[in-house]
Design goal:
The chain is an alpha/beta fold and 479 residues long. Helix content is 33%, strand content 17%.
């Protein structure tokens, strides 16, 4: 076997899983030497129930392996046992697929992993080791920190974690773990950083703010930044202003990003939107010189503020997403949309028409609204997702049949943003305007109960029986 060419041996290793690689390296010294490159994947995951920090530290001290990790993900989510048990039992009853044994096996494995986790020191207590480790990983480019994905590798929990109420939220523990990881980032040269979810109050505490500010040089080297902010239940005006100031300083330090996602999730009230001023967040007219991809989710802002921010990036902005899934449960309509507390969407899009000169794709998703429930120019729309975050086409069999049924039960019409995408990029007429009424929602002071609206196109819309409006394209397929 030692006579085989190196190229052929490498091809053999490419088809081997890790146990096979380990066994094959025992065949000879030549196989052992070539097999070093296949002992590790480029992607390394850290979970709390394994001593992965120690393992990563050992890799960083190994002269042959330290250059292998390029992507590092921290799975820090925890499950709320009581709510998760209710959800899994109901889910299995509805699907009628796996039975009682499937549930029992999943929970039995979970308790074993949690028992193992008690033997591992918490991540925030190993800050010095983490710093020394990341300092010795020369090819590390991507760091992903998440508190929302299944860290256990248990199939049963894949059904649980999409429900945000089944995830345990320990804000103090999350803050400590984030601080430990952030303290190690200045020793890296990252290209991409993703954090889901970041407690917003971190940006108002002096010590926590300083840890973020110490990463300014690392942020300056990023090409991709993805932040999902977790809004606390209570935050006074002064604390809110200081937190936005700290967040803005961090965002401005990442002045070379090409891909930016900024989302705000209010876990105690999932449908609420976070009131945001781009002028306050980005200190006036700050502009990302290389920004090509932008996604904004879960915010309430003014028309002029949003328009000004988008137009500043018109020379480079190629793909724009407004709204997203938010904290919607599986098979429910997206609730991560955008609200305009001042201005109108039609005015905004008319002002942006053919002015975003580099724009190639546009996507609108979720509950898109403007005004309040008792204004005459109230706009309320639900936009269905047409493409994924990677701009791949999403098909109805991926779950949208359930979304259509849910929307029908709410007596609302749903649209996609394809017509609006053509309007912004290619010009042409405004997508067809459609009014609708719903006497069970948004009671209107301008109409009497039971009054029905007409369906004629209008430029200056009048209120229907619900005081709400809908537009953009033809109605969805009947269900």
């Amino acid at each position: 076997m030692d006579l085989l060419p190196v190229e052929l041996v490498r091809i053999v290793y490419q088809y081997c899983d890790l146990p096979t690689v380990t066994a094959l390296r025992l065949a000879s010294r030549k196989f052992a030497d070539i097999g070093y490159d296949y002992l590790l994947l480029d992607h390394f995951a850290v979970v709390e129930w394994r001593d992965d920090v120690q393992r990563l530290h050992s890799i960083a001290r190994h002269d042959r392996l330290l250059g292998k990790p390029r992507s590092l993900v921290f799975h820090l989510a925890k499950v709320d046992v009581g709510r998760a048990q209710e959800t899994t039992s109901l889910h299995q009853w509805l699907r009628r697929r796996e039975g009682h044994d499937f549930i029992q096996e999943g929970w039995s494995r979970y308790h074993k992993l949690e028992e193992r986790a008690t033997l591992v020191a918490p991540l925030h207590t190993r800050q010095s080791m983490l710093e020394a480790t990341l300092k010795r990983l020369p090819n590390l480019e991507v760091v992903d920190i998440n508190f929302t994905k299944n860290p256990y590798g248990i199939d049963l929990f894949d059904q649980v974690f999409p429900y945000h109420h089944c995830r345990k939220q320990d804000r103090l523990r999350a803050s400590k773990d984030l601080d430990a990881i952030l303290s190690a980032l200045p020793h890296t040269r990252l290209q991409s950083l993703s954090i889901d979810q970041v407690p917003l109050e971190l940006f108002r505490h002096p010590d926590a703010r300083q840890r973020w500010f110490d990463c300014a040089q690392t942020f300056a080297g990023l090409s991709r930044l993805d932040l999902v902010l977790d809004i606390p239940r209570q935050m006074g005006p002064a604390s809110r202003s200081r937190a936005i100031n700290g967040l803005g300083r961090v965002l401005q330090s990442a002045n070379n990003v090409t891909h930016l996602r900024l989302a705000f999730h209010t876990y105690h009230a999932p449908a609420e939107k976070f009131e945001l001023s781009f002028r306050a967040l980005f200190a006036g007219d700050f502009t990302y010189k290389r920004l090509t991809d932008l996604k904004l989710e879960g915010i309430s802002c003014s028309e002029e503020d949003l328009k000004s921010f988008l137009l500043r990036h018109s020379p480079t902005l190629e793909r724009l997403r407004l709204g997203g899934r938010g904290l919607a449960k599986p098979l429910e309509l997206s609730i991560g949309g955008i609200h305009l507390h001042n201005g109108r969407w039609r005015s905004l899009f008319t002002g942006l028409k053919e002015k975003l000169t580099a724009l190639q794709r546009f996507h609108l998703e979720g509950d898109i609204e403007s005004g309040d429930a008792y204004t005459r120019t109230r706009e309320v729309w639900d936009f269905l997702p047409v493409v994924s975050d990677d701009w791949n086409t999403v098909h109805q069999e991926d779950g949208f049949e359930g979304w259509y049924k849910k929307s029908a039960s709410r007596c609302k019409e749903n649209f996609d943003s394809l017509g609006l995408e053509r309007f912004l990029i290619s010009g042409g007429p405004w997508p067809m305007f459609i009014k609708y009424g719903n006497t069970s929602a948004y009671p209107s002071p301008y109409s009497s109960p039971g009054q029905s609206g007409s369906s004629s196109p209008v430029d200056s819309p009048s209120p229907t029986s619900s005081g709400t409006f809908s537009s953009f394209g033809s109605p969805p397929p009947s269900v």
